[in-house]
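Lab channel / #folding
Pinned by the channel admin:
"Please post every new chain as: sequence first, then the structure tokens as a reply. Keep commentary short and put observations after the output so the thread stays searchable."

First post following the new format, from NK:
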Amino acid sequence: MNRRFVSARELCHPDIRSEWAPGDRGILRLQRRFGRKSYVVRLLGPGDRERLRAFFASHSPETVRERYGYLLSDMTTERAAALVNVDQGHDLALGILECRAGEETIHAVGRYCLGGGGRSAEFALVVGESRRRLGMGDYLLRTLTETARRRGLREIWGQVDSGNGAMLRLARRNGFELAPDPFAGATRASLVLRAAGRARPKGRPTARTARHRPKPA
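Reply from TO:
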């Protein structure tokens, strides 16, 4: 599989751009506090297959229904492998993990998959029940959005179960527009992305301000 190197500049949350550092096999990772504990935020890879299956097994039936739109009793090895074996330079799959006694446990996952001719991406988020209300979902959504913006995408969107009030509020707080999707029986959350512009040097007048600058007496 073609795996392009993902730089810290390209993959970033707007507040922690400089904190990303290469870990094992060059995979970008960082330490981040949520609540009172420190967690690792990093790209998911092939070695996370069983961790992802264990994460799925920890979900309640309600979480599975809200995330997948229907009840799914098990995540197969093949399905888990497909979800962690992604080209991170094309799509994106991030995890928030807890490290304990040398073992890593996934507590939240955020991902997007390109579509629309490479101009838009569909996102999905899931946070484990025991780690909710710590800001993990907000952090992942903002990271996905900022990364998509820096990669030049025009839109990021997702289908949210209409009964998932927490996810709908999260999307609304982050500027997403919500609209019913009768065909999917869900709510479509979408955000039009603007290119990340360069900051104008202080003191340099714009064309508009230059026209209205008072003339010297």
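NK: The chain has one domain: 17-195.
TO: also worth noting, Confidence is low (pLDDT under 50) at residues 1-5, 13-26, 198-217.
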